[in-house]
Amino acid sequence: MFHRTLSCCLLVLSLLPSSVMAAGFPRLSSLTDDGFRISAEARLLGTGDRSDEILASLSPSLSLSPASVSKVYTAAAALDRFGPQHRFTTRLVSTAEPGPDGVLGGDLVFDGGGDPALTSEDLWRLVQRLYQAGVREVTGRLVVSQWRFGPVDCITTDRCEARSRVDNAYSALLSSAGVNFGSWCVNVAPGSAPGVPATVTGCDSKVLLPDIDNRVDTKAANSGTQLSALRLTEGGGDVVRVSGQISTNAHPRDLYRASAAPAEQTAQLLMAMLERAGIQVQGGHTTSTTKPLASARELAAVDGEPLQEVLLRTLNYSNNFMADVLALDMAADPRPSLEQGGAAIEAFAAGIPDHGPLTLRSGSGLTPENRTTASGVNSLLAYMFAQPSLFPSFVAGLQSPSNGVMRFIRKGPSSFQDRVMVKTGTLNEPVQVRAMTGYFRTRSNRWGAFTVLVNGTESTPYLNWTMVLERLSEDLAALIEAH
């Protein structure tokens, strides 16, 4: 069926003059019949004396919401600013000196370095290095300092609601001292027998963090597993309520839910780890927005993963926390807002030839006010393609439909599955958005770039990915095979 469809498509293309061929995406454009707004463009990328060649376009200068396609701007700007091997450093500092008995007579300050990928493993390494430095007791407090940024004002409904309750991880709140992508992880395992409660624990510590309201029943083998989790913030702090059932022969499941206060989450985890390592903190813990004193001495430090590794995770998993923390890292202003992080990326894009207008209120695309054009995104891709030292790290964050982590894109002809590398974007409120951008390799091994932004309106029907992918994959496959 694919070969017959593709042959017909190639025949039609061969009979059309190039000006008509470039006029649009024949299948994708059918979505405009239902009122969807589309900005789309595909181009061959120039090399040497060759200029870019437009293969197909459909309102390429129409400014629309890109959703998480915004993250390709964040990735490109971060590579341009920091370089692929940059590592963010997280430190433990103090104005006090540890004595020969291992007692630190003052506060221990966690200096959050804005690492978008800081994890529990990094905290364990940090605590181990503090132990190696000879510290066994802290007479003061553990102070988690998010002086660079945080708590960051929420400007989207999802994040504002997440301050009190949340049933997802994508709307995690932001801090330069956040850990585990601003989310709690709880592990659900079957109980010892049917009819008894499941075993629910925190993923990161034997200490039960966060507090857990366990409403999961253990069922007989092969009964099926259905779990839901809601993080609530009550007077005593975060509570994750887990409900549903798990069968006795099911594998344990990890569930992630955004925390109400990332710096507080870091403080709680770090306190548990310090205690486990045999380092007592007498004064408890607190969080701060005050920069550590210049006289504070570094007692332990840990470097995060290289930026190229951070970007692979940011783009592959479309992690909003990581993207927005990176954007805030690039902002020039002290204690920046999310809009100021977006402005830093806009300033980078302003230097890209032929880009045109761009509005980014966030680096993640979670903000529905973000606006760009298909032509603009392709200009960004062309710019990065021409950067020999940055392009390998940039393109590594994109995924091939046939083997990427996002299973829903494993659709369409083999040319689309195997010769395309993509980043997707999805929003459902206030209007439906399905967006995709990336590179493709033609049958003659020319590199190309494409971007498709599909936006609904209040009056358009529901838009799902199947509706877009069925059309887009055929259109791109035809272009790939024709060149």
Oligomer: single chain
Order of strands across the main sheet: 2-1-20-19-18
Largest sheet: 5 strands, antiparallel
Shape: globular
Percent strand equals 15-25%
Helical percentage:
25-40%
Number of strands: 20
Mean pLDDT: 93
Number of helices: 13
- Residue stretches low in confidence (pLDDT < 50, at least 5 long) are 1-22
- Rounded to the nearest angstrom, the radius of gyration is 25 Å
SS-based class: alpha/beta
Instruction: Report the span from N to C terminus.
Output: 21 Å
Structural commentary:
With 483 residues, this protein is α/β, with parallel strands linked by helices. The protein has 13 helices and 20 strands. The protein has helices at 2-15, 18-21, 70-82, 120-132, 157-161, 262-276, 307-316, 320-330, 338-349, 374-385, 391-395, 414-418, 465-482, and strands at residues 37-44, 53-58, 89-94, 103-104, 108-111, 137-138, 142-145, 165-166, 183-189, 199-202, 211-219, 226-234, 237-247, 253-258, 280-281, 285-288, 297-303, 420-427, 433-441, 447-455. A five-stranded antiparallel sheet has the order 2-1-20-19-18, sandwiched between helices. Strand 19 (433-441) and strand 20 form a beta hairpin. Helix 3 (70-82) packs antiparallel against helix 7 (307-316), helix 3 (70-82) crosses helix 9 (338-349) and helix 4 (120-132) crosses helix 6 (262-276). The chain is globular, with a radius of gyration of 25 Å.
